[in-house]
Amino acid sequence: QSVLTQPPSVSGAPGQRVTISCTGSSSNIGAGYDVHWYKQLPGTAPKLLIYANNNRPSGVPDRFSGSKSGASASLAITGLQAEDEAEYYCHSYDSSLSGSDVFGTGTKVTVL
Amino acid sequence: QLVQSGAEARKAGESLRISCKGSGYNFGDYWIGWVRQMPGKGLEWMAFIYPGDSHTKYSPSFQGHVTVSVDKSINTAYLQWTSLKASDSAMYFCARQDSLGYRFFDPWGQGTLVTVSS
Questions:
Q1: What single DSSP character describes residue A26?
Q2: How far apart are CA A61 and CA A79, in angstroms?
Q3: Which stretches of B1-118 are assigned E, i.e. beta strand?
Q4: Do A100 and B59 make contact, defined as CB atoms within 8 angstroms?
Q5: pLDDT in tens, A31-76
Q6: What is the C-alpha to C-alpha distance for residues B67 and B61, in angstroms, rounded to an integer?
Q7: DSSP character for A112?
Q8: pLDDT digits over A14-32, tens only?
Q9: A1 pLDDT exceeds 80?
């Protein structure tokens, strides 16, 4: 019952730029709550990629960047590389239903 | 880091408790969140617990079906079921959750695979 909507898949050739959208509503992203992004490789745990909308943890390449506007957020990957092929999830807080952390529906990035 | 207990196989109606042990930081200062991932599906937030005072918060989707607890003396959080259903078959992750306002999850445990047969 994800309340954050992402495109099921995006693809790009090596070196290209791809973006992943995360669309929410007035009770989550639109209310000003922070958005975080995670990368998940098959069979492994998710890994934090971007926190608080546009901040990279140490060790995350600057090819990854985040932004937020209104009730939506985006993750951009520039200079796409083979190791970027993975599932990506956004995450925020939703103040409805007594408040819950919510994840996006997930986006599979394919490197052509 | 967070290290979770190993894979479990149970029958429907049985009980189960899985664990998540933290190290390398002050365990009592951060929430521990639990996240479900059903086979081939996305991430679902289930609950969090604050080891400092054992305060808990559950997703409405999981309230009443699971219980989270903590033993601060051994830096370990738990997720338990009293009566499993086949639909509980999934990978379960624990993750340290920022409690200062940002709420992001980092780091994550390696996951515990739970298989429930009917």
A1: T
A2: 11
A3: 2-4, 8-11, 16-22, 31-37, 43-50, 55-58, 67-71, 76-81, 90-97, 105-108, 112-117
A4: yes
A5: 999 999 999 999 999 999 999 999 999 999 999 999 999 999 999 9
A6: 13
A7: -
A8: 999 999 999 999 999 999 9
A9: no
Q: Which of A69-73, A78-82, A104-108, B99-103 bottoms out in mean pLDDT, i.e. has the lowest?
A: B99-103
Q: Contact A46/B105, CB-based, under 8 Å?
A: yes
Residue of A101, A103, A107 to mutate, testing the B interface (most B Cβ within 10 Å of its Cβ): A101
Token duo for residue B67: 């219980």
The alpha carbon of residue A79 is apart from the nearest alpha carbon of chain B, in Å, by: 25
Between the alpha carbon of residue A30 and those of residues A92, A110, B40, B82, the distances in Å are 10, 29, 29, 38
| Of the candidates A90, A82, A108, the residue with the CA atom closest to the CA atom of residue A4 | A90
- Binned at pLDDT 50, 70 and 90, residue B101 comes out as confident
The two tokens of residue A92 are 């925020």
Nearest CA in chain A to B113: A43
